[in-house]
Amino acid sequence: MGKRVRAFSGCSSPVRTKREQKNSEIARRAAGEGIVLLKNEGVLPLSSGKTIALFGAGAARTIKGGTGSGDVNERESVSILKGLKDAGFQITSEKWIADYDERFWKARQDWKQEILQESGGIGAADFFQVYSSHVFLMPNGREITEEDLQGADTALYVISRIAGENADRFAQSGDYYLSEREKEDLRVLCEKCLHVIVILNAGGQIDVKELAENPRIEAMLFIGQPGMEGGHALADALTGRLTPSGKLTDTWAKAYEDFPNADIFSHQNGDLEAEQYEEGIYVGYRYFDSFGVEPLYPFGFGLSYTNFKIRCDRICADGQTVSVGATVENSGDVFSGKEIVQVYCVCPQNGLVKEAKRLCGFAKTRRLSPGESQRIAVSFPAKALASYDMKRSLWIVEAGSYILQIGNSSRNLTSVGVLRVEKEAVIEKVSPICPLRSALQELAPAKDAMQRRVRQLEKQAKEEGLPVISFAPQEEIIRRRPVSAYEKKAAALTEKLTKEELIAMVIGEVTKGQSSALGASGVKVPGAAGETSGILEEKWGAPGVSMADGPAGLRLVKKYSYNPDTKEVYGAGISHALEGGFFAEDEEEEGAQARYQYCTAMPVGTVLAQTWNLPLMEEVGKAIAVEMHEFKVAWWLAPGMNIHRNPLCGRNFEYYSEDPLLSGFLAAAVTKGVQSMPGVGTTIKHFACNNQEDNRKGSDSILSERALREIYLRGFEIAVKTAQPMAIMTSYNLINGVHTANSFDLCTVAARQEWDFQGVIMTDWTTTYADGGSVPWKCVAAGNDLIMPGCAGDFENIEKALESGALKYEELQGCVQRLLTVIYQTLEFESCRPYLSEMKREDEINEFCEYV
Ligand code: BGC
After folding, report:
1. Does residue 518 have its Cβ closer than 6 Å to ligand 1?
2. Each residue of 720-760: pLDDT tens digit?
3. Alpha carbon of 325 to those of 363, 367, 404: distances in Å?
4. Three-state DSSP class for residue 735
5. Is ligand 1 within 6 A of the CB of residue 71?
6. How many Å separate Cα 469 from the centre of its chain?
7. Out of 88, 273, 416, 441, which could bridge 48 as a Cys pair, Cβ 3.0 to 4.6 Å?
């Protein structure tokens, strides 16, 4: 049976639109700039037209993105094989690749059957649980033969990994470690080929220490999961059409055990209930640098085909902002390229013990020709230098010397000046939030050693005659936004609503809710993750709005059909939205016409982040906003901005980095891009500490308020303060015993009162469904305005809480008023109204794209 709708989105012609063309070019650029060149002993770039032997799971089955809600259903994806061929390379190993393809399809079918059997079918309640815990493992290929190599002196070997939501990765062979087959293949290639290049096609890091140290492997590139244009982007980098300029946004360790939480993360210690964040603020390079652990590849690292000289010209600071001016010169003489200037600060260690250094700001140059220079300014707010003093609930910049360092990775830095703070400055006064329920033993580096290090750097700075700038940081000014016209309109309507209408509004479109944790409950826009309630449409003219997933693009079904007479839609459900419709059965209905919704699969979050390119992130955001208008999606359930606390988190690919400042700047840039188009907005997620996927709805993130504020909330704070996303999505997990969806401290105290968040806060999908999940009325009381996708039990629960007095009527009204404010903001624009406007014809869409 189809679902009944009143209007629909998408094109009636399958022909590629101009918008698709334009956005795929952006996807290609973003994938190219997100590539990190980890190693190059001079073999790269290659001359195009060269003959290459190509192997590995991802050769023709290149993984464009992760699974689950972060997946995107694009028209087609460019594999590495196709990308290389399009660039003119000759491939000697096509037989091996064809054989691999057969193995791949067989493995896919077996995998599908296993899931369908174990779960009881696609419609079964257990389907998503079974699906997500059976991560598809890329099969092994056959042995490489002499014939496969004939005529090629260069071999390219692609190592691929898949991961997705609801399941963490494993520190095992074939996942975090290389498989025996991969090792053997590489051994053969190193023996038989003159040049061996390794391509890492994974959502996160893999143990590549042996490859890094193997002199026979001459080059290694981390392409991540590069989206639908990955094959072209890689070819661009290999041929030198593009000089790699991506930098790692995580520290890559020599051994998994080098991570501070290696033993306790998720399933590693068998405890999925209580996750003790013992490492405190020492996450990523903050840990490696403070505890003297040598990384394999440091945070911020990435090679280029050319060299750059970075010279600091100027440092200035007023009470609110610090600005570092630098000149970057391409000092090579062959290749042009871009460089990323990174500014770090070594803070004094007098009062609170702090990390050895922290990223404060960064900027990327334009493409510089050999010999060309660019002046660049890196600015950051005084708060980038502050630490959180839990005892006094204050963000402070302590008195002392702040040594500024600049360079092109966290381990390739030069001190350039000292900010001298004479007396402690309070940057922000806050209230304590999310208290620990019992004592937590946190890691801390030896204070005297940290102090010695700072003294030594200070001494060096003096000897070198570096500038000393006196700096008096001032309290941060939060400019409270004035009441908007939307807010007034929303308040007026909220007053008139009945209790039933109010309750219905704080729950998503209940009748269309579905039991799967992975959203695909939208009906107005097939494949969208959900909709707000349509209860006010007829009486008050305020229809529900649609929301669709990301962060690597817009997740909708790419093809569905509808019957114009019966208004019935077919092929719109979860099975069609998942894995490009791999689990779906064809629903052919007489009289139904096909509709197409081809979205652009951008690179995953981590790859986007590796560009360190804020204007490009804005462009990506804008490209997605164009698709949102085209398909009538009001809110994008992205970007994901959780911190990469451990490389085994199954969802790291969706997120940006181990560093909160970088994550915050990137999320703000994407938000600005999306919200530069009227009526559409982002939903930053998952707020907060959703750092593990196993038992994600029941795991309790136990951490100090300092770690919470400095590491896990800081990115969200930056995004809210600088870009005001339309929405925030809370996470599934608990923080110190309280479900984030029920946390007044997070939703109201931190986001609204401290950061002046003006938008709507919603839950993650079905968080109220399970036993032990979040409590519906407590979501409302916390200021979590919208329970998604909503179920009938939520209504009853909220009604009872109102009757008992546990929930106040004004609290409910507050949620509705905030929700309506954002809905009005959205509905003002015709193209964001799912039900009300007529479908756009293809020529109109093309016109629209050109205009944009
Ligand atoms: C994910 C969210 C997503 C939602 C809707 C959940 O399973 O955790 O990130 O937005 O589904 O698809």
Report:
1. yes
2. 999 999 999 999 999 999 999 999 999 999 999 999 999 99
3. 10, 18, 12
4. strand
5. no
6. 37
7. 88
